[in-house]
Specification:
Elements lengths: L1 H7 L15 E3 L10 E5 L2 H4 L9 H9 L2 E4 L17 H11 L3 E5 L9 H18 L4 E5 L11 H15 L3 E3 L21 H17 L5
Parallel strand pairs: 2-3, 2-4, 4-5, 5-6
Antiparallel strand pairs: 1-3
Helix pairs in contact: 3-7, 4-5, 5-6
Amino acid sequence: MFIAASLAACTSGAPTTPTASDARTTSAPTASSKPVIAAAIGDSIAIGNGVPAEDAWPLLVAQHFGWTLSDFAESAAGFTAPGLNTHIFNDQVSAVIRVHPDVVIVGATRNDVFASPATLSAAATAALDRLHAALPHARIIGVSALWGSDPAPAEVPVISQTVKAAVLAVGGSWVDLGQPFAGHPELVLADHVHPTVEGQKLLAQRVSSAIAAQHVRP
């Protein structure tokens, strides 16, 4: 019951078609002659639900590296779960392909908690295969699923492992965040799920550090 309630809390509004103009975008000047274009695929945590748009962790990561990023994340969405505007991650893949990014961040999500491992694997593999086929030179960076401040159910690490396999299969890299908010309600909003500004900053710091340690270059 808790899972359904917390996921339902992310859904409201009228459906629209995802386009590049719908994405949250940030840019930062770089010393290179060719700016790095990045895009993000994810859920309400990745879009910064409940905090200012500029504090969403993918945007903070982009700022850290001097990338220009379009954030196509959608509340309640997953590889198998329709989001706020009825789109699944494969729809976000379509939007990402249209902007021809050098880097794509893909966040695994708690929203796929109701999918069987086989169903999730098929959906994640299809979406990432299509992404890689369309953007063969883009660096794909996968990030593990987050739950919140309450103990994560057993399905959550399975989600992360399933998506990780699909990311690695197309030559991407993986960032395992664990559950940084578990037992830390001060880092999430009253729903126990979505990070506060400080929580978003913590995610951005950990993802940025992992990317730097892996020597990921677009």
